[in-house]
Amino acid sequence: LLAPTEMSSPSLKAGAYILIGVGALTMLMGFLGCIGAVNEIRCLLGLYFTCLMIILLAQIAAALVIYFQKETLKVELSDIVVDLIEVYDPSKEDKRNLQDAWDYVQTQIACCGWTGAKEWENNEILRNKSNTEYPCSCSNRSKDLVEGRGFCVLDDPVNGTATYADWPVHEQGCMDGVEQWLKDNLGIILGVCTGVAVIELLGMILSISLCKNIHSEDYTKVPKS
Asked: How is it placed in the membrane, per its record (predicted)?
C-alpha cells in the first residue's frame, strides 16, 4: 500500500522488507518440507528445519524491536499519517489504495486524524474551500459513511467558512483509537502469536524426527560385513 516516496520511515521500510522476505521464505519452506517428507530426503528436511528456525528467530527479533522501539515507531507513523492527510485528494487514482486504507481505519475505529480532527484543516483541498467540507470517513453521521471516502459538504457554514469544530466528526484521534484497540485485543494477538510459534516448534521437532527415522532406515539397509 505504501509507495517508497510516501513511506519515509526507515523502521517501517525495514519491517515491510522483512515481512516480504518472511513470506517468500515461508512459501519456499513449505515446498521443500513437502518434497522432503514425501521422498524422505534428509537434506531437504534439514533445510526445512533451518528455514523454520530462521522465521521463528525473525519473529522474536521483530517483537523485541517493536517493544523497545515503540515510541520511535509511533513518531514515525505519526509523520507518515500527517503527511498523508495534508496531501489527501480523492481524485488522485495513483494514491487511492493508501487513502482508502486510511479512510477504512477512520471508519472502523470511529476516529479522525492521528491526534484529532484539527490535522485535517491542513489539507490543501479543505483549506481552499474554507473548511466548508470535511472527510466523510471521519463523520459521525451514518449518511456520510455510505460514501466512506472523499469529502462531504458541511450544512449551512457560517459566512461560508468553518473550522474543524463545526464538522460533524468524531473527536477521538486514531492514535488513541489504535492503542485502545490493541489493549482490548492484546490477549487475542498474544494467543495467535503463541499458536504460530508452537506450530513452528512442532514443525521443527517433526522434521528432526523424520531425519532420525530416515537415518535409522539407511543404517539398517547397510549390508553387514
From this structure: Multi-pass membrane protein
